[in-house]
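COMPLEX REQUEST
Ligand: fe (ii) ion
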Amino acid sequence: MDRTPNRTSAGTAAGQKSIAWWREAHRLQLALCDDLESIADSLPSNIVNQDCLFAAKCLSRLMRDVHAFEEQTLFPALRQVFHASAEFSGAVDRLTFEHLADECYADDIAEKLLYVGAGGRDVNMEALGYMLRGFFEALRRHIAFERDHFSSAVETLQTAAEWRAPPAPK
Ligand SMILES: [Fe+2]
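STATUS: Structure written out below.
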């Protein structure tokens, strides 16, 4: 019995789920950037504690979940297709390095937002604003780069068997 159509169908479904997950992950990260920008704009005298706590709770986990998917599922799948491209390989290396830096930065920011969200005001607000702006501006650039350089490549994986179904973004 020829099961090729079923395998193709399953691969397509998994691929579409992965692409949808990746797009949703970008949307959530950009929404978080907007939240962080609002917090930065609220410093030092219009801080909403609840906003700081919410962003702090989301920040580290979202970054780790997205990076785990990209590094364990998306990038390996793309490497199989574009293994001969030095330019592609360099882009993946760059993005992976940025992930590491962003996670460290996100942990620092989350810690400070938790403190401020709990009512702490004896922090250097100028430095906190600088941290927030540095983070969300870099993350927006990162996402724009991924979209510009990888979107069409990701579309080619719609029917590729390398995809595996990722967990839902939180
Ligand atoms: Fe990324």
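REMARKS: Confidence is low (pLDDT under 50) at residues 1-7. Residues 70, 95, 99, 142, 146 surround fe (ii) ion (CB under 6 Å).
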